[in-house]
Every structure is written in structure tokens, then in C-alpha cells.
């Protein structure tokens, strides 16, 4: 399965969706990041045609892939997809993460309109509600989006495709690990912590152990939630 994750809006959790939700549940999946950074390290807003051609070629050589499109590249990405007629058929799903906030909901609507304009069928599009406060009513919080989708008759938004707020998403940054890897880690960090205290290990080492204890405790519930969201995305 090949999935593209995109949104006209930044800071909606595209990397979280790519790295923690999708890739760990697609066997051998490669995450391909399309960002506004050239090989020389300089930022640019343009995605060149030859880069898109290389992406298409790469996708034809692998089974499972997640393509994470940076917000500044979405417009060019979709334009090139339209130029390469039928290239949207290379993808099984188009996942659009969104978060609470008027601007982000407007950008999400714009993204859905852009996908529709290039011929992506609604059956391939999934909206994932990200960083949702579990105490808030989902439909009311995202009223603008629900109203627009209902008014245009695009498709039914799946209220089960929800990733709630969880401190693990912030705590896991910089570890180089995914939530799936943390969840499967069988290391007894509590025993390691006791040994570290007894041996007088450096505080840096002990702090890392405490971090891993916290991550493992958080990972269980969020893994189950992500499993359910993944089913909503691929069904």
C-alpha cells in the first residue's frame, strides 16, 4: 500500500501520522519526505518536475510507502501530479491530518478541494483528526469542516479516525524511536533504574531510564488508539 500524507496547513502532525501511525503498520514501509529543502540545504518553495519523476520511479520499486509532503510543497506536488496524468492512481490513500483551529480547518477544506480537483476519488481520501482534546465534542470542535464536507457531499468523515492529545508525542522527540518500537521494547527499565541508583550511575543515564519508563507507560494506550485509527484509514 502507498499512502501520501499532505495538508495545505503546517503543524497538523503530518510527521506524527507518517512515522507513528502509518509506517509501523505497513510491513517494510519506506517513509519518503518531500520537504522544501534542496540538497544544498537551502530552503525553496518549489518542487521540481524531475524530483516528482524520481519519486514516481522510486514508488514503482517498493511495495509499501508513506510519502510525507511538506506544507510548502503541497501545491507544487498536486500540480505535478495533475501534469503527470493518472499519477494519483499510484496511491491507495490520501491522508489529510487536521487539528482544532479555524485556520487549520479552512486549510483542510482547501486540501480536500484540491484533491477533488485533480480527480482523486473520495473513496481514497481519509481525514485524521489529530491532537484532539478527549473532553471536547469532536463534531462541535470541527464544525466548520463537518459542515463543508456535508454541504459538498464529498464523503462521510470518520469520527473513529481520531488521535487524542498525549504527552508521548512530545516526550518521544529526540529518542529516534517510534511509539511502536517503544511498545514492543521488553527492557525492564524499572530494574535498570534500581541498579543505576545502587551503582551511582551518572544522572544523564538515570534520566534516560526514567524517560523510557514514562514512554513505555504511555505507549500502551496510545498504541491501541493508533491501531484503531489505522483500520479507519485503510478500510
From TrEMBL:
This one is known as CobQ/CobB/MinD/ParA nucleotide binding domain-containing protein
Q: Describe the location of the CobQ/CobB/MinD/ParA nucleotide binding domain by residue ranges.
A: 3-177
InterPro entries linked to this entry: CobQ/CobB/MinD/ParA_Nub-bd_dom, P-loop_NTPase, StbB-like
| Species in which this protein is naturally found | Paraburkholderia piptadeniae
| SUPFAM superfamilies hit by this protein | P-loop containing nucleoside triphosphate hydrolases (SSF52540)
Amino acid at each position: 500500500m502507498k499512502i501520501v500524507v499532505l495538508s495545505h496547513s503546517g503543524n497538523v502532525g503530518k510527521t506524527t501520522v507518517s512515522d507513528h501511525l502509518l509506517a509501523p503498520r505497513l510491513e517494510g514501509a519506506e517513509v519518503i519526505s518531500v520537504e522544501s529543502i534542496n540538497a544544498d540545504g537551502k530552503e525553496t518553495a518549489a518542487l521540481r518536475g524531475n524530483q516528482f519523476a524520481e519519486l514516481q520511479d522510486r514508488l514503482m520499486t517498493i511495495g509499501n510507502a508513506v510519502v510525507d509532503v511538506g506544507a510548502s510543497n503541497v501545491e507544487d506536488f498536486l500540480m505535478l501530479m495533475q501534469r503527470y496524468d493518472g499519477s494519483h492512481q499510484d496511491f491507495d490513500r490520501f491522508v489529510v491530518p487536521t487539528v482544532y483551529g479555524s485556520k487549520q480547518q479552512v486549510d483542510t477544506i482547501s486540501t480536500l478541494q484540491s484533491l477533488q480537483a485533480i480527480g482523486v476519488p473520495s473513496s481514497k481520501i481519509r481525514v485524521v483528526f489529530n491532537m484532539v482534546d478527549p473532553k471536547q465534542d469532536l463534531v462541535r470542535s470541527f464544525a466548520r469542516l463537518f459542515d463543508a464536507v456535508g454541504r459538498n457531499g464529498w464523503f462521510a468523515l470518520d469520527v473513529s479516525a481520531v488521535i487524542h492529545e498525549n504527552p508521548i508525542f512530545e516526550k518521544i522527540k529526540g529518542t529516534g524511536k517510534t511509539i511502536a518500537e517503544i511498545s514492543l521494547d521488553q527492557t525492564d527499565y524499572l530494574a535498570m533504574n534500581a541498579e543505576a541508583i545502587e551503582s551511582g550511575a551518572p544522572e544523564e543515564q538515570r534520566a534516560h531510564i526514567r524517560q523510557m519508563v514514562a514512554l513505555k507507560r504511555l505507549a500502551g494506550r496510545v498504541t491501541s488508539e493508533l491501531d484503531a485509527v489505522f483500520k479507519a484509514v485503510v478500510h
